[in-house]
Amino acid sequence: MNQITLEQPGKYSRTETCCRSCGSGALEAFLDLGSTPLADRLLTEKMLTEEELTFPLVVAFCKDCSLVQMLETVSPEILFADAYPYYSSFSPALMEHSRKNALARIKDRDLGSDSLVIELASNDGYLLRNYVEKGIPVLGIDPADGPAAAARKVGVKTICGFFTEEMAADVAEAEGQADVVHGNNVLAHVADTNGFVAGIGKILKPTGVAVIEMPYLLPLIEHIEFDTIYHEHLCYFSLTALDKLFRRHGLYLNRVEELSIHGGSLRIFVERQENVGESVSTMLANESAIGLDTPEFFAEFSERVDGLRSKLLALISDLKAEGHSVAAYGAAAKGATMLNYCGLDTTQIDFVVDRNAHKQGKYMPGAHLPILPPEALVEKQPDYVLMLAWNFADEIIAQQQDYLAAGGRFIVPVPEPRIVE
Ligand code: JHZ
Predict the structure, then answer these.
(1) Which ranges carry the Methyltransferase putative zinc binding domain (predicted)?
(2) C-alpha–C-alpha distance, residues 400 and 410, integer Å
(3) pLDDT tens, position by position, 370-421
């Protein structure tokens, strides 16, 4: 694993002064969540005694192109290489969502054995395996070796590396251009936003389509999903900001769908010819009407985040004062932001459970909660469980009927803390 030591602060991050998309200097910071450890850098027992290096979590709005963005860029080698613990295949709901996505594209685009589907950030092959099953050639690209190895095991040809404009030219030459390019929850993660988008243009056939998903800024703000803010997420996209970004590279957002996954996401359909459909023009008009493209829209967000924290801390402190025990569900990256921003640790919360075997046996960054398998909920029967993976709350609550039947309760923290019995 890459070692981050306190002797080397500054070596692994830089603070941006210009917009990641348009290069303007007109950035206005509107949220400061303090300085936190890296959300997916889970700790081994040995690392618990070492001091953790933290990085600022400050978010700004670009007054020129409307892009909401993180000011700090942590080196991708540190964020995504060795020991990256996120494996997409642990969520049945995400698997189903991805299967439907692949089947729809096969139909829409009439894909067959002479087509090519490329996925950027293909993780453990959770999406491309659906094309492989239908005999459609695929290529996955992902920088994390653990998930890339898992993808190969399920028959997904995978290049382990960071997708860049240079890699795009090599891939197009060696493999040909793609009929469909997928990129789910990756655009916000890349430090060279423009290079990545230019690369998509290079690997896409003239008649091809890029189908890209990312969390949507509007529900993040409306539902106070502040915990989805962490160092891996450099951009928080509105359709307005996306449209400007892709147009700069001769690519057009012709269609958009709103999805409920990850607390509210967008799926954009990008092509090399301009043919903007009603779904896009309507959403752009709505963003402009509500002011999502103005700094005023974000003016009270920081206070609302503080308000959520106060309510959650008051609830947990009352429960503890009444003698109740509290655990948590989901060693999610967003869980790290929730715990660390709220200052919750092992003094209030005994442990966290997670189905991902790669996370079990480790500890949450900053908060140091031990990560146990989900069976620990029924074994230990804590009185309350803080739902850190609230985006999968319905699915998880359905799985935890035995815990609930024995008197257990969940605390769902966003958009405001509520108890589910
Ligand atoms: P989950 C992820 O963020 C990863 P995270 C990434 N940073 C990204 O961009 C966003 O999504 C969009 C577990 N779980 O996916 C699995 C169960 O244990 O919301 C995960 O560890 N049982 C690339 O990490 C965690 O919960 C279950 O039944 O914030 C959920 O993490 C289910 C459904 C999940 O995201």
Answers:
(1) 19-80
(2) 10
(3) 999 999 999 999 999 999 999 999 999 999 999 999 999 999 999 999 999 9
